[in-house]
Amino acid sequence: MLVTLEGIDGGGKTTVREGLEERYPDATFTREPTNSWYGDAVYRSIGDDDADPLAELFLYTADHADHLSRVVEPALEAGELVISDRYADSRYAYQGATLEGVLEEPMAYVREVHRPFTIEPDLTLYFDLDPETAAERAGATNKFEHADYLESVRDNYERLLEDDPERFVRIDATQSPEAVLERVRGELESFLASR
């Protein structure tokens, strides 16, 4: 099973992942961008306010392809539970927003680039948070953590939820970290018990 944690910055995905690691010690926990050299290139682009948005998309896409072949596919083939802190939906939402004004249908383009090779998650937990709170929590330390940009990203996530309501579970990320983690644990346990 492939479970992904998604949402705009500041929603608590990393905190939840850490809490789930205690509950599911045999699962494979991973994240995007990865800690590979592809991921390093992504992080360099995040820190570059002048990075070309289309080039940046393909850095993220290369990191995702490597992540699939190196981590996700082998773990799934071994029958493991895989939990990823961010995955392809982050690309659709974030790069879809970054490429607004560059491409005619940016999110559709990004999804089409991924379609031939990505693996669809079995469950996506979406941490919903308003952009102002998200930017405040994240600290606006890079170009992707500002409220106006996060508003566009959140709109893209909403479109993804509308397109695939069976896969997504909305989590209210305005709650306390303990309440969010408890809700996630309940949703994940119910999902796994149903499989």
Short description:
This protein is an alpha/beta fold.
List strands and helices in order, with pairings.
Layout: E1 2-6, H1 13-23, E2 28-31, H2 37-46, H3 53-77, E3 82-85, H4 88-98, H5 106-114, E4 123-128, H6 131-138, H7 147-163, E5 168-172, H8 177-193
Parallel strand pairs: 1-3, 1-4, 2-3, 4-5
Helix pairs in contact: 1-8, 2-3, 3-4, 4-5, 4-7, 6-7
The helicity comes to: 55-70%
> Which descriptor suits the 3D outline?
globular
Q: What is the strand arrangement across the widest sheet?
A: 2-3-1-4-5
Name the helix and strand elements from N-terminus to C-terminus, one letter apiece: EHEHHEHHEHHEH
In round numbers, the mean pLDDT is 93
What is the CATH architecture assignment? 3-Layer(aba) Sandwich
Q: What is the CATH superfamily label?
A: P-loop containing nucleotide triphosphate hydrolases
> How would you name the oligomeric state of the polypeptide chains in this document?
single chain
Distance between the termini: 9 Å
Which residue ranges are poorly predicted, with pLDDT under 50 across at least 5 consecutive positions?
Answer: none
CATH topology: the name is Rossmann fold
In what range is the share of β-strand residues?
Answer: 5-15%
* Individual helix count: 8
**Biggest sheet: strands, sense, closure?**
5 strands, parallel
For the secondary structure, the number of strands is 5
- Tally of distinct domains: 1
CATH class: Alpha Beta
Class of secondary structure makeup: alpha/beta
Report the radius of gyration as a whole number of Å: 16 Å
